Amino acid sequence: MSTANNTPIAKVEYTKEKKVGEGTYAVVYLGTKQSTGRQIAVKEIKTSEFKDGLDMSAIREVKYLQEMQHDNVIELIDIFMAYDNLNLVLEFLPTDLEVIIKDKSILFTPADIKSWMLMTLRGVHHCHRNFILHRDLKPNNLLVSPDGIIKVADFGLARAIPAPHENLTSNVVTRWYRAPELLFGARHYTSAIDIWSVGVIFAELMLRIPYLPGQNDVDQMEVTFRALGTPTDKDWPEVSSFNSYNKLQIYPPPSTFELRKRFIAASENALKFMSGMLTMNPVKRWSAIECLESEYFQEMPPPTNPSEIPLPK
Amino acid sequence: MSMMTAANTTILSATGVSGGVVSAPTTGGGTTTTSSTSTNAIDYDYEDSNKDMCPICKTDRYLSPDVKFLVNPECYHKICESCVDRIFSLGPAQCPYKRCDKILRKNKFKTQIFDDVGVEKEVDIRKRVFGVFNKDLNDFDGDLKKFNEYLEHVEEIVYKLDHGIDVEETERQLKDYEELNKQLILSNIERNKKEFENFEEREKFQKEMRLKKRMLERQIEEEDKSNKEWAKREIINRLAAASTSGSLSSASSASTSIVDNTQDVIESVKSTVKLKKSSARRKLDELNRFLQDNPYFSSSNPNSTQNTLLYQQQHGGSVIPFTPFNGDRDIEPRRFTIEEELYDDPFLKDLQNKKEFIASGFRTDYVYERVLTEAFMGLGCVISEEL
Fold it and tell me: Which residue numbers delimit the RING-type domain (chain B) (predicted)?
């Protein structure tokens, strides 16, 4: 057999050909599924470094990806053990939205953004209707397939929506995409936190720079509220009961005029859509269904066909 | 590529306004004098001259920030304004650049628009050629193939002139065509001019409307704010007045009447505010309605059939109707209703009243949705049929 990395026990079905990346708890290889010749990615979880068993995020990833099959959620093809390492066989996705946003040689249109938002929201909607919170949505975790389809990936922080009395940790989601209730340290948040992240991603796609880039957790609040107004008890009941609320500087919410000035190219409906997702009060924030039903998707221009969206290289 | 389109649009608008045929400056041997030993020729190498310095008089932008550079479409050598005045005021003279023997005229000098001389030159050539070859699809009775051939021909001429291939031959072609089609060219110029005016008018109109809309919106925002403040003050004032008069009435009924009064006062002030809803708001509604019916704005109207038709044409006839959920959606998003009076859940009620739950966005319907879905998931069970 041509590859040395394979398990001697099982039939050699998956090969690892090239190392493409390494994270804190996994190494990712590019490979081929032998029986079909399909390109795949193999995520090898480093078990050896965790003496007390598997890393939590690996378990989460397996747990939720196994359950979900959707066009806009990354596909977990198989799982196998080799040399005491857990290996996840995932669909191979060459690029992600972060790369596309940063690659200044790529020009994308409002129709392309609409198409990306549509696919992202379909993926998120699928998670939510299966009662799964993703909890780490960001451009870097929205992978793009060779034919332009967005796949929600990295379920390392995902979890099922808890029973009502259970506490959740508020230390989730990459800082810039963190919803205000998480910034306040809420312990009983809902799927609305994922929608906030999608809203910030939408703004970032239009601006092509991060929309709310806080330097640290305190600064993140400052940046968020300066851009979108400090919430008050009036539009978000009991917000002042959060411990960190009292030290806040009160900023007025932005007028439509200010938002329009910031997002020059956005249509009225696009702005409405964005403010729906970036509503401070999680109860009033749009759900994935409301987002998908937005006028924004109905108006001109129609979302680009995914295969026609420009990709890097 | 984007550069090219930018250049093209400038030309299109430029030919629209120019009004007359841009006369072809003569090139070739006819006008050039052979004396390259003119006293005007300055000895320097222009290749590595500073970008912000006039190579003739060495004035640079650092010392005189107002310096303006001009070029002449004959040779595209950059010369500062004062040098142009000095050298060419007395009539045509030779280009002061060393080894350049073109004779230049002052009135042909112009400011350079593009940084790259190559682009500048091509744009000028295009402007000239399109001034002559100014047919459009209508002149071919909509025959797309013939029109494309014609465009191809025009591009070839531009390319040849730009790259100096068969210049004399091409210039003659251009001239012949101009002679032969004088009438058509002139009428097309008229038409383009009209189209351009139309376009400008439309732009102006749209801009005005947008501005008006924005003004109204801002006005509404401000009025809302001042209304709110007025209401606050009014309530306080009236209550203050009421309590002073109330103190005169009997003490026993005072407390209840004050409460009633307070409610009344707040209500009445609120209703006056509602009535006050400004004329600006009405104007904005009117404007919106007007804009929706306006053909100029149809492109922003999602329901415009024209657009869908256009889209269908562009994308080869059939368009799959857009579905936000890609056809994958629960037909009945909610399969249950909650009878608050009949169903008493002390466990959830407790949570519902806790501050930290309210603030986190906790919702009981999410909980019910989840537990009921999970309870009946995969059973193919419809409760209404079971009962």
Answer: 54-99
Q: What is the four-CA torsion angle of A236, A127, A294, A260, rounded to 10 degrees?
A: 60
Specify burial of residue B374 (Cβ count, 10 A radius: 0-12, 13-18, 19+): exposed
Q: Is A261 on the interface with B (CB under 8 A)?
A: no
Q: pLDDT exceeding 70 applies to what percent of chain B?
A: 69
Q: Which residues, other chains included, contact B241 with Cβ-Cβ below 8 Å and sequence gap of 6+?
A: none
The number of C-beta contacts closer than 8 angstroms across A and B is 94
* CATH superfamily label, B50-112: Zinc/RING finger domain, C3HC4 (zinc finger) (3.30.40.10)
Cα end-to-end span (Å), chain A: 33
Q: Give the pLDDT confidence of B332-351 residue by residue, as tens digits.
A: 666 777 777 787 777 777 88
Question: Inter-chain contact B363–A190, Cβ cutoff 8 Å?
Answer: yes
* Cα(B86)–Cα(A208) distance, integer angstroms: 50
- Please check whether residue A167 touches B, CB under 8 A: no
Confidence (pTM) = 0.62
Query: What is the ipTM score, two decimals?
Result: 0.77
Residue B134 structure tokens: 């100014």
Q: In this complex, do A298 and B322 lie within 8 Å of one another by their Cβ atoms?
A: yes
Which pLDDT score, from 0 to 100, does residue B382 have? 63
For residue A69, the number of C-alpha atoms closer than 13 Å in the C-beta half-sphere is: 1
| Assigned CATH topology for domain A14-91 | Phosphorylase Kinase; domain 1 (3.30.200)
Angstrom distance (rounded) from CA A49 to CA B345: 47
DSSP B189-208: HHHHHHHHHHHHHHHHHHHH
Longest dimension (CA), chain A: 68
Q: Which helix (H) or strand (E) holds A143?
A: strand A142-144
| pLDDT for the residue B238 | 81
SS3 A91: strand
CATH architecture designation of domain A95-308: Orthogonal Bundle (1.10)
Q: What is the mean pLDDT of residues B319-330?
A: 74
Helices (H), A130-190: 180-183
CB–CB contact B366 A281 (8 Å): no
pLDDT of residue A11: 59
Write out the two tokens for B40.
């005007």
The answer to whether A242 and B361 have CB atoms below 8 angstroms apart is no
Angle of CA points A197, A198, A201, to nearest 5°: 90
Domain map (residue ranges) of chain A: 14-91, 95-308
Of B299, B304, B358, the CB nearest to A237: B358
d(CA B278, CA B282): 7
